[in-house]
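In response to a reviewer's request, we include the raw inputs and outputs for one of the modeled complexes. The two entities were modeled together in a single run.
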Amino acid sequence: MAIIVNLDVMLAKRKMSLTELSEKVDITISNLSILKTGKAKAIRFSTLETICEALDCQPGEILEYKQEV
Amino acid sequence: MKVQLQNDWTLAHFISYIAAITAVLLGIQLIINIAILSPVGMDFPVKYTVENTDQLSSVTRDGLMFIPDRQQEGRLIVKEVKKRSGIHSFFLVLLKIVKSSMFIFCAFLVWQIFRSVARNKPFSRGNYKRLFIVGWIFVLAELFALGRAFYLEWLTFDAFASDPFTLIRTTGDLSNLMIIGIVIIVIGYVFKEGHRIYEEQKLTV
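The model returned the following structure tokens for the whole complex.
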């Protein structure tokens, strides 16, 4: 997929584990794992909003577009 | 095939049991056909009109017994042909076995589809594939029946060649099986789309 999810990078920058984020944003670890591994097909604005709030970042820092070769 | 009664008696459960029972009954019918009926001669459905005759009794030509269904304005409507022996008899019995087996398989697939619906998993990958298979089996069964009808025509037409009777072919019309098959294939495409949407929804965070 051309959209890359940099959730792991942001988690590392904020020194936060996936479990901690899961507790903060009230999303199951399995769903966050789907997002982190790039298996997700879509992301709701509400989910993006809560993640950005928890990680104190912008959506552009989590999502990145890379052209497929 | 294991049938277990569920506590939740939904319509899907009910239909799945009906399909399972149908598959078993079709299997028993097939066994009876092979074991009991094939040695004494099997009935094969045909659609013939015999002209220039007023007798309402069975006509036998070249080992083929034409069983009249009804008489209509000096014509004899034949809906069944009995073949007792010979290579053609074996071939016709084989065709009947293949067709019956196809329908047993269909009943088995329908049982699987409704079982998964009863388990609240209607849009699984397997279901739309099963629907496609059932639909194509119905379409093929129709073509199969058509082929068998032409084969029977070819067999039976010669029986009346040197006879004052005139045999009019009335086979060749497609029945509802093909239409049902096409409808099932269309439903299969709907389920395929349903599966795609379901998967997308499942992977939406």
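As requested, we also summarize the result in words. The radius of gyration of chain B is 22 Å. The CA atoms of residues 94 and 158 of chain B lie 22 Å apart.
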